[in-house]
Write a structure and sequence with these properties.
By secondary structure, the chain is α/β, with parallel strands linked by helices. It has ten helices and seven strands. It has a seven-stranded mixed beta sheet, with helices on both faces.
Length: 250
């Protein structure tokens, strides 16, 4: 098992996203539920099902935040399976650990501070990697995008699954306009009001509004040696799940 040490301080001098997520954990879960009308729970639950579909023995919740995906996976898989959650925000990890303790699962999930762009795990260590609403943060206008995707491929065994649940882009133009209007008003405005962190929720709204559509995500994954096998769209495409597998060779 990897040690519970903080990963190398990769790019720590220029990490506005890390500072942002360190600032919002107290209201993060509340706002996720409120702003998605609790649909995020349903989508994350589906992602957990797909993470465990191949009976993995080692699973990583990447950019785990407050640990919801890791907890869902723990409840759905073999008790002997090793589950780790990785995030670079200590505040988020503290909440994740507290949730696991309240659920009686603290001893069966390891939460580790680390960087998606330079993970501390061996080659091919995981049978599955899941990421719930963190993929946008490591790929949209992020200079470590290619490195992070290469790291996902590296830590997956050949044939291992990378399961992503993330915002996407509606195919229908009217739905897309409505979704973008909601992001600019409700997500940016209500998020700022409740959290007191206007900059964080402006970023979250803008990154979702400008994020890639499902076909672009599949192309990005293919370029990284991860072949998309499943795409599921929700709310007309406002959110999507991708399941991609590590190719044996590029």
């Amino acid at each position: 098992m990897p040690t519970n040490k903080t990963a190398d301080n990769h790019g720590r001098t220029k990490r506005p996203l890390k500072r942002m997520f360190d600032a919002v954990p107290g209201r993060y879960d509340l706002l996720n539920r409120l702003l998605t009308l609790r649909l995020d729970e349903r989508w994350r639950n589906r992602a957990a099902d797909l993470c465990v579909a191949r009976n993995p023995s080692r699973i990583l919740d990447l950019c785990c935040g407050t640990g919801d995906l890791a907890l869902q996976i723990r409840r759905k898989t073999d008790p002997a399976a090793e589950i780790l959650g990785l995030d670079y925000s200590p505040g988020m990890l503290e909440i994740a650990q507290a949730k696991a303790e309240r659920a009686g699962l603290a001893g069966s999930i390891q939460f580790v501070e680390g960087d998606a762009g330079k993970m501390q795990f061996p080659e091919g260590y995981f049978d599955a990697v899941g990421i719930a609403f963190g993929f946008r943060n490591i790929t949209w206008k992020n200079p470590i995008k290619d490195q992070a995707l290469a790291e996902v491929r590296r830590v997956l065994r050949p044939g291992g699954a990378f399961v992503i649940v993330e915002t996407s882009q509606p195919v229908n133009g009217i739905l897309k306009l409505g979704f973008h209007t909601y992001l600019r008003t409700a997500v940016a405005g209500v998020g700022a009001w409740i959290s007191g962190k206007a900059g964080a929720y402006r970023y979250l709204a803008e990154s979702a509004r400008r994020f890639y559509d499902a076909d672009e995500v599949s192309s990005m994954l293919a370029a990284a040696g991860l072949e998309t096998e499943i795409v599921e769209r929700f709310l007309g495409g406002a959110a999507a799940i991708h399941v991609a597998v590590r190719k044996a060779a590029q």
